[in-house]
Amino acid sequence: MATQKRANQADIAERLGVSVSTVSRALANEIGISDAVRRDVQRMARTLGYKSKHNMAVVTGDKRAVALVPLGSATSGLSGFYFGIVEGMREQAAAAGMALDLRLVNESAVTLELIRKQVAQANAGGLLLAGIDGWDELAAWSTEAEVPVVLVNGSDPMMRISSVSPANYYGAYMATQRLLDAGHRKILHFTHSYRPTIRQRQRGFEQAIAKTAGAVGTVVHTGERHTKELLADLLAGKHDVTAAFIWNDIAAVEMLEGIYGVESPLPPNFSIIGFDDLPLASIATPRLSTTRVDREAIGRGAVRLLAEHMDGEMAVQQLEIGVSMVAGETVFPG
Predict the structure, then answer these.
(1) pTM for this structure?
(2) Which among 69, 180, 300, 332 would be 20 to 30 A from 110, CA to CA?
């Protein structure tokens, strides 16, 4: 059987359209070679499996990454969610020998110019964006500047930027199925449509309802009713439902007292299930039944994926982290 030819410096030079001398100097980290050329050569060497006698760790920003974490989420009820992700990032970065610069940013003010400045200030060769979805200019800049980007708890439906997120569709399907298995056939889903990740939860809910004979699903968006307004509607009997799947734990916990209070007009077996398993879900009374997201695994997966891209992997990847059900105390037989 023919053996596969080993890659050599001439192969790298041919792929990149540069001289063999340039390849040799870039691999040796010699002065006089631009950072962009050095990155190209070393990434191509890794891609082709070229074995160099030199240490191919890029001496500038190639082993440095910056992670932009949303300030609003980090200081609000979602702080537990992003704290877990950040801890996972830190753990994996330390294991991979990556210098990770974590920075809080106002997610409503994230622009391409802000991203450029943050990457330049950190001298970073890669970027993690937490809670932010991809857009055209970001994808174009990432390609042009050769700075790999990974969206953390975000997505790019056009598949130009890699991402790591919970299994939103299947998690929502499981949450809805749990209510169906308990005997409920009239179920409300409270959600919002601002982000592609959350829209996947609505899809999972609708699919579970569609597969169950006699089941009827009602969808209410945050743009139509706020949490307190929806709770008032439920207590007033405006929705003919016996259970509710709420898009996150924060909104679900806000409704618990009204649903299970002594003066609630709802039947005692009215059931509610959330999503995320935030710390507040475990201290709520009663303990919220919910869907657990492994936030640390999201952080670890994002850093691993970014490291692959920084090492030359070009394929866009959409990594989903599995979820699990938390029994809690708010799902009753229908």
Answers:
(1) 0.80
(2) 300
